[in-house]
Amino acid sequence: MNLKRTLACLTALALLPALSHAQEVEVLSNEAVIEIIPVEEATTDSIVLYTAFKNDPTLARIDSMMSLLGSNHKPKKRKKGEELWDRAVEMPSAEILSQRIDWLNEQSQIDLDYNSTVDRFIQLYVVRKREQVSRMLGEAEYYYPLFEQALEKHGLPLELKHLAVVESALNPAAISSAKARGLWQFMLPTGRMYGLEANNYTDDRQDPALSTDAACLYLKDLYGIFGDWQLALAAYNSGPGNVRKAIRKSGGKTNFWEISPYLPRETRGYVPAFIAVNYAMSYAKEHQIYAQPATRHLSQTDTVHLDHSIYFTQLAHLLNTDVEILHQLNPRYKTDFIPASSLAEAKQVLYIPTERISAFTSFRDSIRVLASLEAERRESLQLEEPAVQEQITHRVRRGESLGKIANKYNVRVSDIKEWNRLRSDVIHSGQRLSIFTATSVASVQKETKEESAVATTDSAELPIVYHRVQKGDTLYNIAQRYPGVSANNIMEWNDIANAKHLKAGMRLKILKKG
Description:
By secondary structure, this protein is mainly alpha-helical. Helices cover 44% and strands 11% of the residues. The radius of gyration is 28 Å and the shape is globular.
């Protein structure tokens, strides 16, 4: 098969090529399409291997986590007849890759093997994901010292720090489709087993220090169960039960590669991805990948303890710093509000820039005053009738971020993403976002009366009333309360495209027909 014909076939199949020089290939039935193409420009006896895996869950997970970095990078579109490889990122031979992995393996307590599967993931990181690896190298300058301190404290291999790259792409606010959170992607039940709690205001899974310590404890327990780091990593991904099951199905074998066919599909690629990340983060410069400048370093931050509640916006004003910086340093807090600790004699831990420590010390009394005023305000609100939610539409302005919008309305970034079905933190100028803000029932009733009074009719219009949606309401039972009104009428009058969009606290316009 000549090169031109091969390129046409690959284009017709809409494959996403991954470059490789591996000489051995594991062919998974119905999951891979493989074509070997000689390349004249390549070094002697080397080949380029194009492999496209359909519905590979490990690749899907990596893509999902990396997309949360906020990168707008997209694969380059190839023109007709253009070579499928990029000479600027030409891969070294399989022999060189193998030698480099062997050197890493000699320095590691974890078996780092090289084979065609590992080769495929190496190329994922150093070819297809070059920009994201550059960003993660910058983030690593902040997070890796923290990871290394915890790993050393627990007597664990330091190269486990790379596991967070596979798990979350070093994004402490990462949320998977299964609702795992944080740098180490803990599900809530597992997190609670290792002391990570969550409530309306905080989530320990998103705290870099707390979650790293919990991950160390979990990894230590898994290694204690299996006595092998590759199996412990597989168990971290899919649970120890699935690894035990795979060992039984394999006839009692305890080698990851031998039990791999019996593991869940994502887990089969999990250990190879971990090995590939070790390579990519260690040999980035050899592939002309360099760290994007880090926005902060661990040595430039310090911890303070709060015994009173306060808002990030208030604290940022007192410290004369950017509220976005405080949010970035403290991903554990889900809203703009930092509550007082619920535990007796305990204090909230907060990370702030080192240069603002003296300002924090100077304004301790001011923080206490603000906390006291806020406590009084909240206590007075509790005496009013319960709050409901009101929907408003916010149009994004140039330079606005989800964090700034969330602060403006005192809501969580995660709520805004859920209300608007956003998969990442990227928003655009002019974009419209639905926001649900808390309003007391008394003020809502007053507002509704005023609107009803203003909405008088003339000879050409029907009377207008406003209905506040209560918990449990449906479009059908709301329509039943107004003679001659149907659910479709309500949807039309209020621009509701789907009945599922109905939420408690929404204000619906109703045209009375009788």
